[in-house]
Amino acid sequence: KRQYQRRVHGGQLIQEHALTNEGSIKFTTGIYGDYTFCFTNGGHGVQAVSFHVITGQQTVDYDQVARREHLKPIEMRLRFMLDAATQIHNDYHYFKSREAGMRDVSEASNSRALWITVFNVILLVALGAWQVLFLKKLFIKKKLISG
């Protein structure tokens, strides 16, 4: 038995299908997030699975929209450009938020690296001073130098 499952981030099952040897599964969702696609093969043979995931503006069939809403070609082109501008605007905000998150992580990592470096320098200076004092005491004890 071959089966397909689609889950949203958090493991909630959204869609489940029994699969045939060939075919396609299409879905449209308004839920934003990470999705998990799971294919199981209960048979003994090897099965090939290929994905073609389309997101954003690419999913809209503008010819169908034009027929449904009785749009003229220029209106359809304007709708296309408006959707493209909206997609670019949304992508900009998405990447801006990702950049802010990455910047925060980078600044935190740099701060940690700075404090580790400061600790290492202090430790090496302290160990160097201890080593000098230890060797001085040793040389005085062995009477190689006078104290």
Description:
- By secondary structure, the protein is of the alpha+beta class.
- The chain has 2 helices and 3 strands.
- It has helices spanning 62-69, 73-141; strands spanning 2-8, 13-18, 35-41.
- A 3-stranded antiparallel beta sheet has the order 2-1-3, with no helix packed on it.
- A hairpin with a 4-residue loop joins strand 1 (2-8) and strand 2.
- Helix 1 (62-69) crosses helix 2.
- The longest helix is centred in the last third of the chain and has 69 residues, at 73-141.
- It is elongated.
- The termini are far apart.
- The mean pLDDT is 83.
Question: What layout of secondary structure does this protein have?
Answer:
Blueprint: E1 2-8, E2 13-18, E3 35-41, H1 62-69, H2 73-141
Antiparallel strand pairs: 1-2, 1-3
Helix pairs in contact: 1-2
| DSSP, total strands | 3
Give the strand order, joined by hyphens, for the main sheet: 2-1-3
Strand content: 5-15%
How many distinct helices? 2
Which term fits the overall shape?
A: elongated
Could you state the order of secondary-structure elements as H and E?
EEEHH
Helix/strand/pairing class, anyone? alpha+beta
Relative helix content:
40-55%
Report, as a whole number of angstroms, the end-to-end distance.
Answer: 89 Å
Radius of gyration using CA atoms only:
32 Å
Overall mean pLDDT: 83
Stretches with pLDDT under 50, minimum 5 residues: none
Major beta sheet, specifics?
Answer: 3 strands, antiparallel
Summarize the structure.
The chain is an alpha+beta fold and 147 residues long. The protein has two helices and three strands; from the N terminus they run E-E-E-H-H. It is 52% helix and 14% strand.
